[in-house]
Each structure stands twice: as structure tokens, then as C-alpha cells.
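FAQ: What does the model actually see?

It sees only this:
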Amino acid sequence: MIREILRMGDPRLLRVAKPVELFGTPELQVLIADMFDTMQAAGGIGLAAPQVGVDLQLAIFGFDHSERYPDAPAVPRTILLNPVITPLSEEREEGWEGCLSVPGLRGVVERWSRIRYSGVDPQGQPIERTAEGFHARVVQHECDHLIGVLYPMRITDFSRFGYSEVLFPGLDVVDE
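And it is asked to produce this:
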């Protein structure tokens, strides 16, 4: 089922999500399936539970190829619950970001270049991975949703924030 994606300005997006405590439940499986349906219908590359109005520490992400980010390398399809992000160096890099909760806009955000992320899968089994570049950016962006942070809150130079259709006229993005 496709769920409504909350948009910036909705106070529910600013809440801190609660840890998932019950794993492998039918309700959790339905939520995850709905999130993938919703992400796919919106053409997204990631989605966090708070974006569909559910206050749980759950994020999904991953793609082979993205119309929204045509130059981005593939990111493995992941279901991540109760995540923890650890930077692996002091190095940071800037990159363009968009968000399904902030449709039609893009901005440059600085993120950690290399991270380790850990958490659990829907069955409660541990996940631990290292990521760099765009993969690391996607994980950090989605996990920000779990602490009530939207990417515009991380922008430091608003001269690099604007409408996708103006910034990237050749990019065919209908509604981010």
C-alpha cells in the first residue's frame, strides 16, 4: 500500500523516533512493504518511517539506478532498524540532496565521507557495514529523519539551495 509522505512543515517530521522493540512481527513486515511501495511510487532512493508518520527508528534505502540521481553509484537495498552511525575519519564532503518530504527542491549538504553504520534487520539480526561517498550520504540522510532533522536544516550556503527544475533543467524529475 502506498502511504502519504509527510512534507516539510509537518511537526511529526521533527520528532525523535522510538527504537523498534518488536522484531519479525506481521505489523512490521506490512510497514516495511508499504514503505518500499511508497518509495518506489515516489521514485525515491530511501525513506524513513517518520516520513510516513510512524515514529520508529526504521529506514529503508537502496537502488541499482536512480532517475533522481543518474550519476550516483548503486547502493545496496537495506532495511535498517535502530541505526548507529560512526564517522571513520574527519573527512567530510559536500553533495546535492533532495528529499521526498521536501519535493521539488535540492541543496548542497556536507556529510561524513566514510562511516560505519550498525543496527538490526527486521528479524533483529545485527547489521554492520562501512560506506563511503553517495552510499554514506544516503544512510546519513535517512538516519537524520529518525532524529527529526531534514536536510535543509544542515545547509550552510543557501546560494546552493533551490528548485530542482531551475538548478538541473535537464533532469526529468516530476515530484521528488
